Amino acid sequence: MKRQLNDDATMDGIMRAAPATIRVVLQHKMLCAGCPIASFHTVSEAAREHDLDEDQLRRDLEAAIKRGDAD
Fold first, then answer.
1. Quick check: 57 and 43 in contact, CB under 8 A?
2. What PANTHER family does this protein map onto (predicted)?
């Protein structure tokens, strides 16, 4: 599967480009929406900071991006 999220994409950039990802962020109990650090944290950094499985987070974000494109 081709990665939709590049490694240097920030959480803020992802949420702005694909608002459907905000729901994923909240479901993972992350507070990135509205957080001033979100404009600096990549997916990898956010996953590490919140002690989450990065691969699962990426899959969930990518699925939300794909669903958002279909709307």
1. yes
2. BSL7085 PROTEIN (PTHR39341), DUF1858 DOMAIN-CONTAINING PROTEIN (PTHR39341:SF1)
Q: Judge whether 3 lies within some domain.
A: no
pTM over 0.85: yes
In a domain, 4, yes or no: no
Helices (H), 1-71: 11-17, 21-27, 43-49, 54-70
- Residue 11 is encoded by which pair of tokens? 């959480």
Please give the chain's pLDDT, 71 residues, in tens: 344 688 899 999 999 999 999 999 999 999 999 899 999 999 999 999 999 999 999 999 999 999 886 65
Give me the torsion for CA of 35, 6, 23, 15, rounded to 10°.
50
